[in-house]
Write a structure and sequence with these properties.
This protein has helices at 3-21, 57-67, 96-102, 122-129, 140-146, 148-156, 186-198, 206-212, 265-270, 272-282, 299-308, 320-328, 386-395; strands at 34-39, 42-48, 76-81, 107-112, 133-136, 160-168, 172-175, 201-205, 227-231, 252-256, 286-289, 313-318, 334-340, 347-349, 365-373, 376-383, 405-406, 420-423. It has 435 residues and is an alpha/beta fold. The protein folds into two domains: 3-151 and 388-416, Cytidine Deaminase, domain 2 (3-Layer(aba) Sandwich); 155-385, Dihydrofolate Reductase, subunit A. The longest helix has 19 residues, at 3-21. The radius of gyration is 23 Å and the shape is globular.
Length: 435
């Protein structure tokens, strides 16, 4: 695909991406999806997946076009994700491939393949077998960024993990006795609240709750509250902690290594840990027990348990030992440093010992960028190889006999030193798609 046609396809798919972004915070664990119907070079219908369990983007776009009095036969569909093609008891909507064929749509352009094993190229093959021309891969990079959580879970079977570290120039996240309010200014904190509103969960360790007593809610911007996940190995946090006393306590999850042996009254009275668990549950808090590894809940198990709950993206906000563990175990995907113009000296390091003894073994990051946020510099990057892991699943169908046209795919980094960019950034979101 070249010239004017390629330019138009990019234009329409970019509009579909803009529509998809409007569903943020409302569709997880489903992906964000946008769709645009075009006929004779003009948009005749638009749609997006608005809420979990609701109509899919393709259905909304077709309905929009019909309401406006347009004929859909022969139109082109531009969609950010491969149309679904299966039914099941867990699925709330019918297959979009049936809808596309029933309305005699001529061509379909999709940014990425759906990595769900029940789709992964089958939707494309169904359309091709029926004579529909399918093009895959235009703006694939943007579409991957839009649905990092969805792709990560489908491919790696765990949520997308984003580490957010606010620190001084000399790498301290708090003064020696734990004081950290405030290292960053209000503009940076507002950005973090915006991030919270787009992630399924925020995760912190026990020490962060003890020192800061955070609410972990969205307050400085409009948006829904994420799940609040707290790691507390031995149920030591006081019941008065703000994170347990929010207006929506059912969205607080406390993870411990303490196993619940019985809920009988006699056992609760004899065992203070059982009594603490019962008190937390009475507040509405969900308490989950996982195996230790070795002194705190196993992060790998924690992530899988959160994934089982439908959580597809996790923003890790502290503290130092948690950041260190995620980095050391290579269980992160994105990392963002908010570096404030201050020097603290002796204080709490943001990252501890990673076991690295040679410079050549340092952690590497891809897709690095630098942004000015208020008085801070924000450094943002991805785990080396992360996008390569997602890329093939996003643009190449599972089925060997499915032959979509790959147009302008996002190229893997091929192991070269990643390029960096500097912008006077307004936000820390994956795309400059507007709000």
């Amino acid at each position: 695909m070249e010239g004017k046609e390629a330019t138009q396809a990019s234009q329409f798919l970019r509009r579909a991406l803009q529509l998809a972004w409007k569903g943020r915070g409302a569709v997880s664990p489903n992906p964000l999806v946008g769709a645009v119907l075009v006929k004779n070079g003009r948009i005749i219908g638009e749609g997006l997946h608005r809420n979990y369990g609701g109509k899919h983007a393709e259905a909304w776009a077709i309905e929009d076009a019909l309401k406006k009095g347009h004929s859909i036969e022969g139109a082109d569909l531009y969609c950010t994700l491969e149309p679904c093609c299966f039914t099941g008891p867990e699925k709330h909507q019918p297959p979009c491939t049936d809808l596309i064929l029933r309305n005699r749509i001529a061509r379909v352009f999709v940014c990425t393949v759906d990595p769900n094993p029940r789709v992964r190229g089958r939707g494309i093959q169904i359309l091709q077998d029926a004579g529909v021309e399918v093009t895959v891969g235009i703006l694939a990079s943007e579409a991957l960024a839009l649905n990092e959580g969805f792709f990560t879970y489908q491919i790696m079977k765990r949520p997308f993990v984003h580490l957010k570290i606010a620190q001084s120039i000399d790498g301290r996240i708090a003064a020696l006795e734990g004081d950290s309010r405030w290292i960053t200014d209000e503009k940076a904190r507002r950005m973090v609240h915006r991030l919270r509103a787009t992630y399924d969960a925020v995760l912190v360790g026990k020490n962060t709750v003890q020192l800061d007593d955070p609410e972990l809610t969205v307050r400085l911007v409009k948006g829904r509250n994420p799940y609040r996940v707290v790691l507390d190995t031995h149920l030591e946090l006081p019941l008065s902690s703000k994170v347990f006393r929010t207006k929506d306590p059912e969205r607080t999850i406390l993870i411990t290594t303490t196993q619940s042996v019985s809920l009988e009254r006699s056992s609760i009275e004899k065992d203070p840990l059982e009594a603490k668990r019962k008190a937390l549950e009475d507040l509405g808090v969900r308490v989950l027990s996982v195996p230790p590894s070795p002194t705190r809940p196993s992060l790998s198990v924690v992530l899988h348990r959160l994934g089982d709950l439908g959580i597809r993206s996790v923003l890790v906000e502290g503290g130092a030992s948690l950041f260190t563990s995620f980095l050391r175990e290579n269980l992160f995907d994105r990392i963002s440093f908010f570096i404030a113009p201050m020097v603290i000296g002796k204080g709490i390091e943001g990252i501890g010992d990673l076991g690295i003894r040679r410079i050549a073994d340092h952690l590497r990051f891809d897709r690095m960028s630098f942004h000015r946020v208020g008085n801070q510099i924000m450094l943002d990057g991805y785990r080396s190889g992360f996008y390569e892991e997602l890329y093939q699943m996003a643009t190449l169908p599972l089925l060997a006999n499915s032959k979509p046209i790959i147009a302008n795919p996002f190229p893997p980094s091929s192991g070269k030193t990643p390029e960096t960019s500097f912008t006077n950034g307004r936000n820390l979101l994956p795309l400059g798609l507007g709000r």
